[in-house]
Specification:
2 copies of one chain form a homodimer. By secondary structure, chain A is an alpha+beta fold. The first copy, chain A, has a domain of 91 residues: Ubiquitin-like (UB roll), CATH 3.10.20. The first copy, chain A, is 13% helix and 27% strand. Chain A has 3 helices and 8 strands. In chain A, strand 5 and strand 6 form a beta hairpin. The first copy, chain A, is globular, with a radius of gyration of 17 Å. At the A-B interface, helix 1, strand 1, strand 2, helix 2 and strand 5 of A face helix 1, strand 1, strand 2, helix 2 and strand 5 of B. Strand 7 of chain A pairs antiparallel with strand 5 of chain B.
Amino acid sequence: MNDINFEKRISIEQVEESTELAPKFDTDGLIPVVTTDYSSGEVLMQGYMNEEAFKQTITLGQAVYYSRSRNTLWHKGKTSGLIQKIKEIRIDDDQDSVWLRVDVQGGASCHVGYRSCFYRSIPFGDNISSIVLKFEEKEKVFDPKEIYGDAPNPTKL
Amino acid sequence: MNDINFEKRISIEQVEESTELAPKFDTDGLIPVVTTDYSSGEVLMQGYMNEEAFKQTITLGQAVYYSRSRNTLWHKGKTSGLIQKIKEIRIDDDQDSVWLRVDVQGGASCHVGYRSCFYRSIPFGDNISSIVLKFEEKEKVFDPKEIYGDAPNPTKL
């Protein structure tokens, strides 16, 4: 595995208009990542990478995130088998956000068991009086208990 | 415009499996937002909303973000005319991330002038020795100078 170096950020021109990769990590050392399904375009999840996770994602060709709840590198799918194989990596204009386009082995990305983490929609418009979420996915792809057993639920209140 | 109330987060079951909207804002009061083009599925941008921006987005049916660089509500397109009309709003499993599906008036979302903010890709794989970004969009949709004039560039080093 080669060692990858990120460039120093020296000018707006360099960051926005050049071919140099000079990502910006926030004060916690993280960069947000949105992950979409390569075939359907569906947004599967939103996560974070630190510098090491970003470098591993690039060299490994599989999504490696940083888990804020567990404070550790998180090679997605290593426990569940639902590996995210990278098809394309994109960086945004000011290089503080990453877009991963992936193929998911097993077809699901959500620890609750759905294909996408975004399985519910929010009604909108100026006639909304009370908000009732709508389930856009009707059936879970897998049973979380079978896959994760007694591992603690990552959702924090 | 109706006043919208978010629910209190009381249990993992409620957050993950119910129809109640109980979003989690981070310690800065923000929730990350990924915005995709409703027709093409392309990721246009990644931003943030605070509670007020989220409520305005829901009632207005247009994307309202919170600008971290300018510390203010940001009704996208109010300056440039490139309004993002909401087609669908989704929330993720633990309700700490939002997905907006939008139609963009004018066809561009990026202050640099491209259709998407993610106009460059990053090469990947274990044979990568040096990283050279590739421009996936060849031509700008608009000239930023014509649209924004002398307004300060939002990109921060």
